[in-house]
Specification:
With about 140 residues, this protein is of the alpha/beta class. The chain has one domain (about 1-130): 3-Layer(aba) Sandwich (Rossmann fold), CATH 3.40.50. It contains six helices and five strands; from the N terminus they run αβαβαβαβαβα. A five-stranded parallel β-sheet has the order 2-1-3-4-5, with helices on both faces. β1, α2 (about 15-30) and β2 (about 35-40) form a beta-alpha-beta unit.
Length: about 140
């Protein structure tokens, strides 16, 4: 049972199956395999509600910005408005390079923003940076 408690809960909302697979592989490269992928923001929020009911808390959440059903901005707003989820590290990983988009999600409460890289090595570097900076297990 203690092994489960010490395993970080990383949630990733990503609607593109290719990007999800690359993220999974990138996290595997740095030995982070306890990751749950969800296809959109609504599924992510539903999963978080289930975790909270079980008195569990994600250690880290990665979201894509442009997703169907419930987009990244909506996820940030809902998570930051909830006292139980407002402090969970929330990282946006998106294709946009638009400064206004980046500034707006940071103002909404994202902890960090990364533009999706074109190379797998760069993605591994990003996942390594994210886990080193934001994955704090108590």
């Amino acid at each position: 049972m203690t092994e489960i408690m010490n395993t970080p809960i990383i949630l990733i909302a990503e609607d593109d199956p290719d990007d999800a697979l690359m993220l999974k592989d990138a996290f595997s490269e740095i030995n982070q395999t306890a990751i749950k992928f969800l296809e959109n923001g609504k599924l992510l929020m539903d999963h978080i509600k289930q975790l909270l009911l079980a008195d569990q808390m994600p250690n880290l959440i990665l979201i894509d910005l442009n997703m169907p059903v419930f987009d990244g901005r909506s996820v940030i707003i809902e998570l930051r408005d909830n006292p139980r989820t407002k402090d969970i590290p929330l990282i946006v990983l998106s294709t946009t390079k638009n400064k206004d988009d980046i500034d707006s999600v940071m103002k909404l409460g994202a902890n960090e923003f990364f533009t999706k890289p074109s190379s797998f090595k760069d993605l591994v570097d990003i996942t390594n940076s994210i886990t080193n900076n934001w994955l704090h297990i108590h």
